[in-house]
Amino acid sequence: MPRSKADWDAWFARREGKQTYSKGTKKVKKLPATQTGRRASVIGERSYQEHVFQRSHIEKYADYRRANPTPAEAEFQRFLNELNGGALRRKFVREHVISGKWIVDFFFPDIRLAVEIDGSIHLTGIQKNKDKMKDADAKRFDITVLRLTNSEVAGNKQRLTVKLREAWRSALQRENQIIGKPYYGQKLPE
């Protein structure tokens, strides 16, 4: 424990990365973590932060899907970014986790609108049941869901714009289940 002012100055200088000399202090370059005596990490070894703050499997899978979109999802993202000169750019989140167990393809957090792009797998009975459960969970969390097929995304852009605007309006006019008022207490022009 430092006892004198000089000892305290030297202690603070060492802490800030400065080195003390008899004629004052001099700023020195800090060494990287591997050269300062701390334990070096090995590639492939889990770090302490990963151990404490480990992400769930669903979040990791959402990251994977974000990095590897389907062609219809990539096309719809391009469509959203170009719509009205980019008015919706950065207003949505791709592959968003809701309820801790479901992933929606696109999510607009401002108005709580989720857009699902359904491929051919969604025509099977098992997937239809999963979609019903996802929609029920979304409703429980006060989220409006718009379901589009791959052919709708690849087809007529005018019709796609109309469907998106209708869903946007219904999400705006929907009453918030928590406070009982519409999200934006204003009426939309007809």
Automatic annotation (TrEMBL):
<keyword id="KW-0255">Endonuclease</keyword>
<dbReference type="Pfam" id="PF04480">
    <property type="entry name" value="DUF559"/>
</dbReference>
<dbReference type="GO" id="GO:0004519">
    <property type="term" value="F:endonuclease activity"/>
</dbReference>
<keyword id="KW-0540">Nuclease</keyword>
<dbReference type="InterPro" id="IPR007569">
    <property type="entry name" value="DUF559"/>
</dbReference>
<protein>
    <submittedName>
        <fullName>Endonuclease domain-containing protein</fullName>
    </submittedName>
</protein>
<dbReference type="InterPro" id="IPR011335">
    <property type="entry name" value="Restrct_endonuc-II-like"/>
</dbReference>
<keyword id="KW-0378">Hydrolase</keyword>
<feature type="domain" description="DUF559">
    <location>
        <begin position="60"/>
        <end position="163"/>
    </location>
</feature>
